[in-house]
Every structure is written in C-alpha cells, then in structure tokens.
Amino acid sequence: MAVFEHASWICGSLHSEDGCPVFRKGFSVLKPLSKAFLSMSALGVYLPTLNGGQVGDQVMAPGWTSYDHRIQYQTYEVTDLIGRDNTLSVIVAKGWYASPMPGWVDTPDKKRRASRHTGLIAELEILYADGTEETLVSDASWLVAGSPLRFAEIYDGEVYDASFESEDWRPALVFDGPTRLLVPQEGEDICETERVAAKEIIHTPAGERVVDFGQEVTGYVEFSLVGRKGETVTLQCGEVLDREGNFYHGNYRSAKAELVYVCKDGPQTFHPILTFYGFRYVKLSGFPDGCVPSQFTAIVVCSLLRQTGRLSSGIPELNQLFSNVFWGQKGNFLDVPTDCPQRDERLGWTGDAQVFCKTATYNFDTERFFKKWLKDLALDQRPNGAVGQVIPDYLPDGEPSAAWGDAATVCPWQVYQSYGCVDVLKDQFESMRSWVDFITHTTTRKNLWTGGTHFGDWLGLDAPEGSYKGSSRDDFIASAYYAHSTELVVKAGHVLGKDVSSYEKLLLDVVRTFRETYPTYLTETEHVLALQFGLTEHPKETADALAGMIQKDGEAMRTGFVGTGYLLHVLGTYGHGDLAYTLLLRKEYPSWLYPIGKGATTIWEHWDGIKSDGSFWSDKMNSFNHYAYGSVLDWVYEYAAGIGHEENAPAFSSAVIEPHPDKRLQWLDVELQTRNGVIHSAWRCQGDNVRYTITVDMPARIIIKGKAINVRKGTYTFWS
Asked: How many CB atoms are closer than 10 A to CB 221?
C-alpha cells in the first residue's frame, strides 16, 4: 500500500488563521508490538508528540521546498513511544508555507501564499508480533483545538501561552489537499545541532537588560525562570549593539523576531518550537529581576551537515575569519541556502549560493543539501528557462539576473566536482541547458547577453554614489557568465555522454564575440571575470593590470559579490600571490579582517556594516550574517594550502597538492575530508625555510616550488 493512500488532509479551519491548531488522535495497542512507524507532512510546519514524548529530533519539518510542485514527508520509528493507551498530538504552524514572505513587498503572489490555510496528513503503521498490521490515518475522527502556541511565523516569531489549556475539541475538517505532491524527504534533517551558553547579561546605557551569547547563531533561546500564571516576558533578537552600547534591532526591518511568553505557575523552561531567529543578543522585557547567564542557552538550528573542512593558521584574526565563515554557513544552511537568517528576508538567493557553493562543499558535506535545493530550482524554473532570483521562487515577478540565475549551471557542476556525483548532472542537465537557451533566445545581441535587467557586481565598492551596484558593466558581466554557463553545459554533456556540439559551437561564438566587443576592461571585477572564465587573450597582461589597479587603490579591493570570490584566485594563478595574501590579511576597511576588529562572529553583508566611528551602514540592508564573502575560504583551501584535483578526477580521486606559503601567516594547517579519503596539507615557515607536511589517502601529485613528485597514500615531509 502506498504511503498516505487512505489518509486525508485535515485542518482546523479552511481560512488562514494566526493561531496554531493542535490535532489529537487517541488509540490503543492491545497486542504485543513489533514495530511502529509514523509518516507525516504538513502544509506549514509541524511538531508531533506521542504520549508527551517528541517524535524524532527534526525541527521545522517537513522543510522548505517549492510547495507548488512538491512537499516532503518524514517517516519516524515510534516503537518505543507506544504503550497500551496512546495519544498522538501534532501542532501545526504557518512556517515558510503561509508566512507573509518576503517582508518588503506586497505582491499578488505573496498575498496568495499568506492566505493559505495550514493542514496535516499522517499515517501510523503498527506491526504486531503475530505478523498482523494495523494502520491509523488522519481523517475526520481526529480532533482539533487551539494550542498554547497562539501565534508563529517566520519573521515575527512566536507567542506561547504556557498557561493555556486546549479545550473545545472538535472534529478536524477534511479537505482536498495536495497528496500527489508528497515525496519522501530528500534534504538533510533540520535539527538542533549545538548549544551556546550565554556569555553575560549586559545592562545597557538605555536601561535595558540584554543577554550576549558571544556568537551570532541561527536558532532560538532556551530560558528558565520561576513565574506566576499570566505573567508575560518578551525576548527580542538583535545582532549587534549600537555605538553607545544599546540594543539594536533596526536592521531587522519589519521582522519583529521576538518571543512573547506567557508564564504558568512555578519553575519552567521553554524555547520556541515552530520558528527560528538569527541573533547574538536578546533583549529581555518583563523578565524577573536578578536573572543570570546560566538561565539562557542559545540552541543552534540548521541542516544536519557533517563538517569536512578544518583550517587554522598562525594569525588569530585569520582564525576568527575561518570561524566566521563556518558559523555563517551553519546559520544560513537551514534547508535552503539563504542570504541571511534574521531580517524580513531569509530567502534562497541564487547569487549568494552560486558565489559560495565551492567553499560550502569544502566546509561541510553538502551534496544532499544542494541536490535537494537544485531540484527545486529546476521545478521553479520558468517555461522559457529563466531562473528566479530566489529558490523557492517567492519573487516570481523578479527579472532573472546574470550570476544569480547561473546558479543553475555553477552549483551542479561544483557538486559534481567536489563529490563525483554524476546523478546531480543527470538531474540538472535539462535545467542547465534551459538556462543557457533562455539567454540565447532573449538577448538583444547575438552571442552576447545584452538587454537584460541585472544585479551587476552587487555591492561593488566602486559603485556610483547612491547605487548598490558596482561600476562594472551589466552587459559585460552577463556576457561573461553566458560564456561560463555555456562551457559548463558542454562539460556536463561530455560527462553524461550527450551530444553538445551545438553548445560547443555556441561557446566558441560567445568567446569570440566577447573578445571583439570588450577589448578593454574598466573595473577590477571586469578584469577578474575575463581571467577566471578564460575570456582574455592576454591573461598575464590582464592580471598585471588588475594588480596595478589594486595597488593604486592602496592595496584595497573594489570588487562586489560577483568579483570578490574569484579575485584572490586570479591574482594567485597569474603571479600575484603576494598581493592576494596582502588583501586577505588587510585589517583596514575594506577587507575580510576589518569586521573582525569590530567584533564580527559571522560574515557581514557589507564590509563596513559597522563604520570606523561605530555608526551603521544603513538600517535598510545591513545583515551581519551574510555568507557570500566567505567564499574566500576556497582560495585558502586551493591556493594557500594547495589542495586540488584535476577536472577529470572529481571528488579528489587523484589529488594535486601545491601549497603556496607566506611568511606573514607563520604557519597554515588545512584538512579536507573528501569522498576518496582525507587530504591534510600543512606548512610552517622557519627562518628562510618552509617545512611542508602532506598526508593523502589517494594517489596525488605534490608540487613544491615547481618540482613535482607522484605519491600514493601516506605522509610526506618536504623542506624548501
């Protein structure tokens, strides 16, 4: 029997409502039990308990997918939770399904989604010791009532009344829900992954009490107190303090990001259950006097990813940067690669994912995570092949942009390169091809991409006054990515054994036309893209010109989202590794280490999110947990530590290790767990000499100062 074959979708109301219903089903087990399995999904997010015990350890199930095309369901073994007389209870909230997202627009599509009512579908399969089976399904026999969770949304948080008792139970309403869209869970579990103790409680100049956890996280706060029934406490989230040391919430924009908790009598411990927040600081209102840090714990919530990369160096600030990148990834890899976890956004921006994808695959095992998200990208791809700005596409009226839509080609190819997963290319090839075809059919000039509306080099530091876009030409960036995506379609086609001869010809035509149209490059990012994508006929001259521009600017970069991720790579590749290290280690604005001096514990959206005088860049768009610029770490893995592989040897089946030390670091130690074993590359500067220690679990070519040696599994030490 197929899962949910006889189950019905049930709800408390056929209209959108702020309250969060709780569904209940009682049942008895009168024979010896062998196994029991509960399958469940929701329109919204759900929290199931069986006889008071939580079912499974997932948070925010069933996760976030392109709900118009597919909805995941989970299956849990619940054998140990079942007794003779049992009660299954499930609270359902809006989640990503029906919260008013995004916060800054008011479109028909947003209204459509926000007006949807929530719902539940469930099936309990009971296997008895005598070989017989029994199945209980969601139907009109289930009861529904209001729950203590009085309100829950993604942006605004929760209102929870611990003194509330569910009553007025009534039969659940059965409705015709999207059963045909249900699929087994494909993404990683979303779980509580770690706990961060409160560092201190601050009494601000404004007279507020603020809990500082010392680390920006995504998740929620667990707190304990002794209260009286009806007393209300409020916890509001913030990322930073202002320059006077007061709590700051302005950059959350319209998102309240708060928990309102109504107490019951006596000692109590609570944390939110069907939402999440991004925060380092929490402002307390109505909390009993005399509270201490031990009463508060930040619980980290993210997709359950196995860490595969580790980096450390001789410079404390650089080590903090490494930490910030990892925390930024954890905070934004909550089922979907989001731009930020805190304000009224939290969307799967394709440009951010494209820029960061390589670093993401090195830091953590993200194969399953990206495969699930890329399937949603393909499902949400428009009939003409266009890819939305965000996936799931909650901005369907948004114009497709170069470097954003190119996530359709860049991310599958990188997942294949990192993990050797041919399936991702099989699954995504039509999406990859359709994206390139979209460009071909909509451009205003053949063999270039012109005439579109793009984000350009977003947040480029060479932006004209009043603009978020850098000074690089939109058509230049779009055409460069046109060439790059076409090349990736060709490469994927070769791996899959497909005829891509038409795309091979297209690639030659695009590169030729690009070179004819753009014989000179105007900005740092234009130089970077011409080098990275093999579009310049004179790479050494182009790299020298790029280096000259940077040096003329006082050894400071001027690139934005598009150029920054490749900047150090092209400098290192074409003989300017010293300058690449200078940019990495620079402490003044703009730089990766400037935010470290301002107390950053994650990557910022703007290099100067907090300015030198302590003021803020802006309230409008100033996230302090935005992972895109963390893409610098793939340069540390690949150039500084030298860990790489040939393109035709994905998943590091045959490694190439060529470290590039710099005395300013003193030492560097990097480990990467690959599908074919561990690679460990370390070097230490000792006077004028460098000691290299390299361990590999696979055949490798080790290159030290231009001299190569072929090795097999083992540890090797070299001096130079």
From this structure: 24
